[in-house]
Amino acid sequence: MKNLALLICIIPILSFGQGDGMTSLMYSVAIPMGESADYIDETSFRGFALTGDYFIQDEWSLGFSTGVQTFYQELGTQSYNLETLTVTGEEFRYINMIPAIFMAKYHVDRYGVVTPHIGMGAGFHWVNQRTEFAGFSFDDSSFRFGIQPEAGVGLEISPSTDLLFVTTYHHSFESKDIQTHSFLAFQLGLRWLP
Length: 194
Hints:
Elements: H1 2-16, E1 21-33, H2 35-39, E2 46-55, E3 60-82, E4 85-107, E5 114-133, E6 136-158, E7 161-172, E8 181-192
Antiparallel strand pairs: 1-2, 1-8, 2-3, 3-4, 4-5, 5-6, 6-7, 7-8
């Protein structure tokens, strides 16, 4: 697991040293959607994204996207009936998602002051869903296939740095342990160009 985490962090950084590469680091705010919103319905302010892209043509780039998004909700005191027994306690819910997505992006004007792009990616999400109730923890984790469409725009603040705003939709498909999870993320950060 440590080697995988190291590899995920190194790939975007390696693109920075290339003449046709760029790297970005962004803060991420996300809204849970679908079955994720059924489990936790609060917005997540706990996230970041790291991307690396390499241009294969003036308009097209291939790259890698990763990061972390954590959803959390405190439900307060809850009671559950189990046949002839009622259990009462404090309930907390968590969803942690770490995507590892290969991306293809189309850049409308790569060399402009304003640089919009759209992209589509596919890869894997590591998803951990945890419920803590009355001192007990119920935890499920799995890797699953996922997709990530995105749209963004960069605004040049120096010849080698852009202010970047990106909207991404993350969708990880159902596995045997955990239902489908999805969220819409709004990301703001910096993109560095060589």
